[in-house]
Amino acid sequence: MKTIIFANGEIKDIQLLVGLVRESDFIIAADGGLNHIRKLKLVPDLLVGDLDSVDEKDLEWLEEKGVEIRKFSTHKDQTDLELAILEAVDLGASRLTIAGGLGGRIDQTLANINLLLIPELQNIDVRIDDGLEELFLISRHAFIHGAPGDIVSLLPLNRQATGIKTKGLEYKLNNETLYPERSRGISNVMKKAEAEVSLDSGVILCVHTRKSALKGNK
Fold this sequence. Notes:
This protein has helices spanning 34-39, 56-65, 80-90, 106-114, 211-216, and strands at 2-6, 26-30, 46-49, 68-71, 95-99, 125-129, 133-138, 141-145, 151-156, 161-167, 174-178, 188-189, 194-198, 204-209. The chain is α/β, with parallel strands linked by helices. Strand 2 (26-30), helix 1 (34-39) and strand 3 form a beta-alpha-beta unit.
Protein backbone atom coordinates (compact mmCIF):
# COMPACT_ATOMS: atom_id res chain seq x y z
CA MET A 1 0.00 0.00 0.00
CA LYS A 2 1.34 3.42 -0.97
CA THR A 3 0.88 5.89 1.86
CA ILE A 4 1.52 9.62 1.98
CA ILE A 5 1.90 11.50 5.24
CA PHE A 6 1.48 15.26 5.35
CA ALA A 7 3.57 16.82 8.12
CA ASN A 8 3.32 20.42 9.32
CA GLY A 9 6.55 21.77 7.80
CA GLU A 10 6.74 24.66 5.38
CA ILE A 11 6.00 23.94 1.72
CA LYS A 12 7.29 26.48 -0.82
CA ASP A 13 4.77 25.67 -3.52
CA ILE A 14 1.77 23.52 -2.62
CA GLN A 15 1.06 22.85 -6.30
CA LEU A 16 4.32 20.89 -6.58
CA LEU A 17 2.68 18.23 -4.41
CA VAL A 18 -0.21 17.61 -6.79
CA GLY A 19 1.73 15.03 -8.79
CA LEU A 20 2.80 13.16 -5.65
CA VAL A 21 -0.70 12.10 -4.61
CA ARG A 22 -2.79 9.52 -6.42
CA GLU A 23 -6.41 8.62 -5.84
CA SER A 24 -5.48 5.19 -4.51
CA ASP A 25 -3.01 6.53 -1.92
CA PHE A 26 -3.76 6.19 1.78
CA ILE A 27 -3.44 9.73 3.18
CA ILE A 28 -2.43 10.47 6.76
CA ALA A 29 -2.44 13.94 8.31
CA ALA A 30 0.19 14.41 11.02
CA ASP A 31 -1.60 17.05 13.09
CA GLY A 32 -1.14 20.44 11.35
CA GLY A 33 -0.24 18.69 8.10
CA LEU A 34 -4.00 18.70 7.64
CA ASN A 35 -3.66 22.32 6.46
CA HIS A 36 -1.67 21.20 3.40
CA ILE A 37 -4.21 18.48 2.65
CA ARG A 38 -7.07 20.95 2.72
CA LYS A 39 -5.23 23.36 0.41
CA LEU A 40 -4.97 20.49 -2.08
CA LYS A 41 -8.72 19.86 -1.67
CA LEU A 42 -8.08 16.30 -0.49
CA VAL A 43 -9.62 14.28 2.33
CA PRO A 44 -7.29 12.28 4.59
CA ASP A 45 -8.01 8.73 5.65
CA LEU A 46 -6.52 9.28 9.11
CA LEU A 47 -5.51 12.16 11.41
CA VAL A 48 -2.79 11.46 13.97
CA GLY A 49 -1.32 13.71 16.68
CA ASP A 50 -2.03 15.73 19.78
CA LEU A 51 -4.20 18.04 17.62
CA ASP A 52 -2.67 21.25 18.98
CA SER A 53 -2.50 22.61 15.41
CA VAL A 54 -6.02 21.57 14.35
CA ASP A 55 -8.96 23.86 15.07
CA GLU A 56 -12.54 22.92 15.92
CA LYS A 57 -13.88 23.68 12.44
CA ASP A 58 -11.37 21.26 10.92
CA LEU A 59 -12.35 18.59 13.45
CA GLU A 60 -16.01 19.06 12.57
CA TRP A 61 -15.18 18.78 8.86
CA LEU A 62 -13.21 15.57 9.48
CA GLU A 63 -16.08 14.06 11.45
CA GLU A 64 -18.51 14.94 8.64
CA LYS A 65 -16.21 13.16 6.18
CA GLY A 66 -15.93 10.10 8.42
CA VAL A 67 -12.17 10.45 8.87
CA GLU A 68 -10.62 8.39 11.66
CA ILE A 69 -8.93 10.51 14.34
CA ARG A 70 -6.28 9.15 16.68
CA LYS A 71 -5.54 11.71 19.36
CA PHE A 72 -2.46 11.51 21.60
CA SER A 73 -1.51 13.38 24.73
CA THR A 74 0.50 16.59 24.37
CA HIS A 75 2.88 15.09 26.93
CA LYS A 76 4.31 12.49 24.55
CA ASP A 77 7.83 11.33 23.68
CA GLN A 78 7.35 11.30 19.89
CA THR A 79 6.61 14.04 17.39
CA ASP A 80 3.32 13.91 15.51
CA LEU A 81 5.22 12.82 12.41
CA GLU A 82 6.87 9.90 14.18
CA LEU A 83 3.47 8.77 15.46
CA ALA A 84 2.06 9.02 11.94
CA ILE A 85 4.95 6.98 10.53
CA LEU A 86 4.42 4.22 13.10
CA GLU A 87 0.69 4.18 12.30
CA ALA A 88 1.51 3.86 8.58
CA VAL A 89 3.79 0.91 9.30
CA ASP A 90 1.13 -0.79 11.41
CA LEU A 91 -1.38 -0.31 8.59
CA GLY A 92 0.89 -2.13 6.15
CA ALA A 93 2.51 0.66 4.14
CA SER A 94 4.97 -0.71 1.57
CA ARG A 95 5.81 2.70 0.08
CA LEU A 96 5.77 5.85 2.15
CA THR A 97 6.07 9.48 1.07
CA ILE A 98 6.39 12.25 3.67
CA ALA A 99 5.30 15.68 2.45
CA GLY A 100 5.83 18.81 4.51
CA GLY A 101 8.76 17.28 6.36
CA LEU A 102 11.20 20.03 5.40
CA GLY A 103 11.36 23.76 6.04
CA GLY A 104 10.54 25.81 9.11
CA ARG A 105 12.37 25.02 12.34
CA ILE A 106 15.79 23.47 11.78
CA ASP A 107 15.43 21.15 14.80
CA GLN A 108 12.19 19.74 13.41
CA THR A 109 13.71 19.32 9.95
CA LEU A 110 16.77 17.47 11.30
CA ALA A 111 14.57 15.27 13.48
CA ASN A 112 12.35 14.46 10.50
CA ILE A 113 15.36 13.43 8.40
CA ASN A 114 16.66 11.22 11.21
CA LEU A 115 13.27 9.48 11.38
CA LEU A 116 14.25 7.79 8.11
CA LEU A 117 16.64 5.70 10.21
CA ILE A 118 14.08 4.15 12.55
CA PRO A 119 14.13 0.32 12.43
CA GLU A 120 10.44 0.05 11.58
CA LEU A 121 11.17 1.56 8.14
CA GLN A 122 13.97 -0.84 7.25
CA ASN A 123 12.00 -2.75 4.60
CA ILE A 124 9.88 0.16 3.35
CA ASP A 125 10.60 2.49 0.44
CA VAL A 126 10.32 5.83 2.26
CA ARG A 127 11.04 9.34 0.99
CA ILE A 128 10.63 12.88 2.21
CA ASP A 129 9.38 14.85 -0.79
CA ASP A 130 8.03 18.39 -1.21
CA GLY A 131 7.89 18.31 -5.01
CA LEU A 132 11.13 20.28 -5.24
CA GLU A 133 13.43 17.99 -3.24
CA GLU A 134 13.24 14.32 -2.40
CA LEU A 135 15.33 12.79 0.37
CA PHE A 136 15.88 9.07 0.91
CA LEU A 137 18.45 6.70 2.36
CA ILE A 138 20.79 4.46 0.39
CA SER A 139 22.31 1.56 2.29
CA ARG A 140 23.35 -0.65 -0.63
CA HIS A 141 21.99 0.37 -4.03
CA ALA A 142 19.50 2.82 -5.50
CA PHE A 143 18.40 4.49 -8.72
CA ILE A 144 17.64 8.21 -8.86
CA HIS A 145 14.97 9.20 -11.37
CA GLY A 146 14.95 12.79 -12.56
CA ALA A 147 16.26 14.84 -15.45
CA PRO A 148 19.61 16.06 -16.78
CA GLY A 149 20.77 19.00 -14.70
CA ASP A 150 19.07 17.88 -11.49
CA ILE A 151 21.25 18.29 -8.40
CA VAL A 152 22.17 15.24 -6.34
CA SER A 153 23.95 15.43 -2.99
CA LEU A 154 25.20 12.30 -1.23
CA LEU A 155 25.65 12.76 2.51
CA PRO A 156 26.94 9.94 4.73
CA LEU A 157 25.04 9.68 8.00
CA ASN A 158 26.65 8.99 11.40
CA ARG A 159 29.82 7.45 9.98
CA GLN A 160 31.82 7.17 6.78
CA ALA A 161 30.34 5.41 3.76
CA THR A 162 32.72 3.24 1.76
CA GLY A 163 32.96 1.63 -1.64
CA ILE A 164 30.72 4.23 -3.27
CA LYS A 165 30.19 3.93 -7.00
CA THR A 166 28.01 6.16 -9.17
CA LYS A 167 26.69 6.12 -12.73
CA GLY A 168 24.96 8.91 -14.59
CA LEU A 169 26.41 11.72 -12.44
CA GLU A 170 28.78 14.40 -13.69
CA TYR A 171 31.34 13.85 -10.92
CA LYS A 172 31.79 10.10 -10.83
CA LEU A 173 32.71 8.20 -7.70
CA ASN A 174 34.53 4.93 -8.23
CA ASN A 175 34.91 2.78 -5.12
CA GLU A 176 35.43 5.83 -2.93
CA THR A 177 34.71 6.93 0.64
CA LEU A 178 32.64 9.87 1.83
CA TYR A 179 32.97 11.27 5.36
CA PRO A 180 30.20 12.99 7.37
CA GLU A 181 32.57 15.77 8.45
CA ARG A 182 33.57 16.53 4.83
CA SER A 183 31.51 18.17 2.08
CA ARG A 184 32.69 16.28 -0.98
CA GLY A 185 29.33 14.68 -1.77
CA ILE A 186 27.48 17.99 -2.18
CA SER A 187 26.02 19.25 -5.48
CA ASN A 188 26.66 16.54 -8.03
CA VAL A 189 24.67 16.80 -11.27
CA MET A 190 22.59 14.25 -13.18
CA LYS A 191 23.77 13.73 -16.77
CA LYS A 192 20.77 11.62 -17.76
CA ALA A 193 17.24 10.94 -16.59
CA GLU A 194 18.50 8.15 -14.34
CA ALA A 195 21.50 7.89 -12.06
CA GLU A 196 22.72 4.97 -9.97
CA VAL A 197 24.48 4.80 -6.61
CA SER A 198 25.89 1.78 -4.78
CA LEU A 199 28.09 1.37 -1.71
CA ASP A 200 29.71 -1.35 0.39
CA SER A 201 29.11 0.01 3.91
CA GLY A 202 27.46 2.88 5.71
CA VAL A 203 24.30 4.84 4.98
CA ILE A 204 23.96 7.74 2.58
CA LEU A 205 21.28 10.41 2.63
CA CYS A 206 20.49 11.23 -0.99
CA VAL A 207 19.11 14.74 -1.60
CA HIS A 208 17.71 15.04 -5.12
CA THR A 209 16.71 18.57 -6.21
CA ARG A 210 14.58 18.74 -9.33
CA LYS A 211 15.78 21.37 -11.80
CA SER A 212 12.34 21.90 -13.31
CA ALA A 213 10.77 22.64 -9.92
CA LEU A 214 13.72 24.83 -8.95
CA LYS A 215 13.10 27.12 -11.91
CA GLY A 216 9.51 27.55 -10.88
CA ASN A 217 10.54 28.68 -7.38
CA LYS A 218 12.93 31.44 -8.44
